[in-house]
């Protein structure tokens, strides 16, 4: 394969996306263009290089051996381009601009609750708070900062422990619980997570309490569990920072000793020196320190 050095990065990015996605439609959606545009750009690249890059199969585009060789080189180019993008962002010394922070929905709600004071501290920063369970790609800058319960095994990621979240049982104000013993609680209706989210904190404890039975109301989101408990649909295990400030709920018993989740702040090492990212990191660390009693269920 004799690759013309004039092949531009935009055409190579189209090639790379089609190789990853497999179809014109999904590649076009990922790139935000029409699928005829993807087909045209790939054909032009093939003509320029002088080799077929894809086998056109009935259900997908599969890279040829020439395509596989180009794919390895293009992925290396992409990695370098992303590194340049991150490093160039760090050349600015202004504490201003957009900072995108990704967290689970309960933690995102906690951050949102404190946005007025965060904005007062950092008036020139625009906050994007993204509620997601999935691990945003810091290398591609899908988020600048992550708050997560696990530290991923990824190169280039810098972590800082924020604190340990406590959990307790909560019920609506009008939901009467005579005795918070295991036997009494086991006979009451419960709200919990569905099977796909049974790894969430407190769910194993709840399954053991219910002798393997599933909660009668199940969801996939902490805020759904919170609303269902508020409405009186049953008892729910909630993070204390979500349950304690809610006037429509009351805590049943104390903090559950064996149920907790450490929270970590994750940032790509190329971005941590960026003034606006550094400023938000410091503000989040300060927020966790200030709210430590609430987060640990001692408020």
Task: Describe, in plain words, how this protein is organized in 3D.
The N and C termini lie far apart (67 Å). By secondary structure, this protein is of the alpha/beta class. The chain contains 12 helices and 11 strands. The longest helix has 25 residues, at 65-89. The model is unreliable at 1-5 and 89-93 (pLDDT under 50). Helix 1 (9-21) crosses helix 2 (24-31). It has helices spanning 9-21, 24-31, 35-49, 65-89, 105-113, 115-121, 182-186, 203-209, 222-230, 240-243, 275-290, 292-295, and strands at residues 54-56, 61-63, 97-103, 125-131, 145-148, 157-172, 190-193, 217-219, 235-239, 249-252, 260-268. The radius of gyration is 25 Å and the shape is elongated.
In short:
With 299 residues, the protein is an alpha/beta fold. Helix content is 41%, strand content 22%.
Query: What low-confidence regions span 5 or more consecutive residues with pLDDT below 50?
Result: 1-5, 89-93
Distance separating the two termini: 67 Å
Q: Count every beta strand, where a strand is a DSSP E run of 2 or more residues.
A: 11
Biggest β-sheet strands, sense, barrel: 9 strands, mixed
Q: Which bin fits the share of residues in helices?
A: 40-55%
H/E series: HHHEEHEHHEEEHEHEHEHEEHH
Radius of gyration: 25 Å
- Average pLDDT number: 88
In terms of DSSP E residues, the strand content is: 15-25%
Structural class: alpha/beta
User: Given the C-alpha coordinates, what overall shape results?
Assistant: elongated
